[in-house]
Amino acid sequence: MTIRYDDALRNRIREHLTRHDRRVVSDPSKRHAAVAVVLVDSQVGEDRVDPAPVEDWIAGRPMPEDLDGRMVDVSGGASFLLCRRASRLSSHSAQWALPGGRLDPGETVVDAALRELDEEVGVALTDSTVLGLLDDYPTRSGYVITPVVMWGGGRLDPRPAPDEVVAVYRVGLHQLLREDSPRFIDIPESPRPVVQIPLGNDLIHAPTGAVLLQLRWLCLEGRNDPVADLEQPVFAWK
């Protein structure tokens, strides 16, 4: 069942974020980055075909069960924007990500999230659309990420920058409430559990998966569970 994109949802999410005692990570050895969690409206069935050339990236990649990497049949009602990064990027190529990047000198996390949203997916919003911030998430690749939750005010019209983003998807918030989500697995390289968020025909891992899990727990369910200790898969450590 989809979630209605309306004022009641916006007010509920804003209230949960306002009441939340946000966890801040202070680590001078890491660079600071911000990501935009943009909430938009969408229609059921508008995403039956994945616009990205997934077969170019999946060859040889071990995929669990019957997953094929495609992001299809996930739209409908209140949604968030999710990006498939371009395959030509030097790091984290072809991975799933929220719009975002490192802070420029003198920028706030809100300024950086808004700027990266415009640069990466061609969506220009103002700071008046910000509902609040999720917890900081420290990554293995040397960043502290601050997620900024924004209310898009409708469907919006993403125009991805081809050098950075190959496709932008509207993923229904109801997909975060799937019975098989979240998933946790153990790896020999770390004592911390690796988080996996099933979406479409793929699995979203931390850091993006951790942010999406807190989007569910805090914004939708009002839970204050931490996510910073959830592990990333080894392929995302660099």
Number of helices: 4
Poorly predicted runs: none
| Ends apart, CA distance between termini | 37 Å
CATH first level: Alpha Beta
Radius of gyration: 17 Å
Multimeric state: single chain
Mean pLDDT: 93
Q: Report the sheet with the most strands, covering strand number, pairing sense and barrel closure.
A: 8 strands, mixed
| CATH homologous superfamily classification | Nucleoside Triphosphate Pyrophosphohydrolase
CATH topology: Nucleoside Triphosphate Pyrophosphohydrolase
Overall 3D form: globular
Strand share of the residues?
25-35%
The proportion of residues forming helix, as a percent range, comes to: 10-25%
Structural class: alpha+beta
Number of structural domains: 1
Number of strands: 11
Short key terms for the protein model shown above:
EC 3.6.1.-; Nucleoside Triphosphate Pyrophosphohydrolase; 8-stranded mixed sheet; 238 residues; alpha+beta; 3-stranded antiparallel sheet; NUDIX_hydrolase_dom; 4 helices; hydrolase
